[in-house]
């Protein structure tokens, strides 16, 4: 069967099925050309390569933050801990000064790094390319930090706690 002969997958059905896949929750951040901190909540973060060390994440093409991330030479991926659920909500909202909450510091490239995260990846932007209604960002990992705290998890439209299987 040819893929062109198949009916298109309805966006709602695709979103619901994708929601069955549990993901971590991140705040991706960068420094805009004017020096302002820019950040947003994303769960589209993935490992891409160990040699060289590459990660990827995606952003909606309609995002008001797209231009800042495309212009920034670097970004940070802050993998949130369970205790940081309110920061996740804050960075997913239209609140004006998102960085007024949380303990933030400038990383190697100037991108904002959040204290208390499960992990932080400081990245040089290698590429960005349009893919459907999103832009895919690939970054070379320049530095990492991790902490033995439980990560925040998102699945089926809800935040979840990670538990051990007995």
Describe the structure concisely.
Helices cover about 15% and strands about 40% of the residues. The chain has helices spanning about 10-20, 65-70, 85-90, and strands at about 25, 25-30, 35-40, 45-50, 55-60, 75-80, 105, 110-115, 120-130, 135-145, 155, 160.
Give an overview in words.
A hairpin with a 5-residue loop joins strand 2 and strand 3. The protein is about 15% helix and about 40% strand. The termini are far apart. It has about 170 residues and is mainly β. It has a 7-stranded antiparallel beta sheet with strand order 3-2-6-9-10-5-4. A 3-stranded antiparallel beta sheet has the order 1-11-12, with no helix packed on it.
**What is the CATH superfamily classification?**
Electron Transport, Fmn-binding Protein, Chain A
CATH architecture tag: Roll
CATH topology: Pnp Oxidase, Chain A
Range of helix content? 10-25%
List the helices and strands in order: HEEEEEHEHEEEEEE
Mean pLDDT: 94
Number of strands: 12
Distance between the termini: 44 Å
- Percentage of residues in strands: 35-45%
Strand order of the largest sheet: 3-2-6-9-10-5-4
Structural class: mainly beta
SS summary, helix count: 3
Main sheet record? 7 strands, antiparallel
Shape: globular
Sequence stretches where pLDDT stays below 50 over 5 or more residues: none
**What is the CATH class?**
Mainly Beta
Radius of gyration (CA) equals 17 Å
Tally of structural domains: 1
């Amino acid at each position: 069967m040819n893929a062109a002969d198949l009916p298109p997958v309805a966006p709602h059905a695709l979103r619901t099925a994708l929601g069955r896949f549990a993901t971590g929750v991140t705040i991706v951040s960068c420094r805009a050309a004017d020096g302002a901190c820019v950040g947003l909540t994303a769960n589209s973060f993935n490992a891409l390569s160990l040699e060289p060390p590459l990660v990827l994440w995606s952003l909606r093409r309609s995002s008001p933050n797209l231009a800042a991330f495309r212009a920034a030479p670097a970004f940070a991926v802050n993998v949130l801990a369970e205790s940081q659920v309110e920061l996740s909500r804050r960075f997913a909202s239209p609140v004006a000064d998102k960085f007024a909450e949380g303990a933030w510091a400038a990383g190697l490239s100037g991108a904002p790094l959040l204290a208390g995260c499960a992990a932080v990846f400081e990245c040089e932007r290698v590429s960005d390319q349009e893919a459907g209604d999103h832009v895919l960002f690939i970054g070379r990992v320049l530095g990492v930090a991790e902490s033995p705290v439980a990560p925040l998890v998102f699945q089926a439209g809800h935040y979840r706690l990670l538990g051990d299987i007995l």
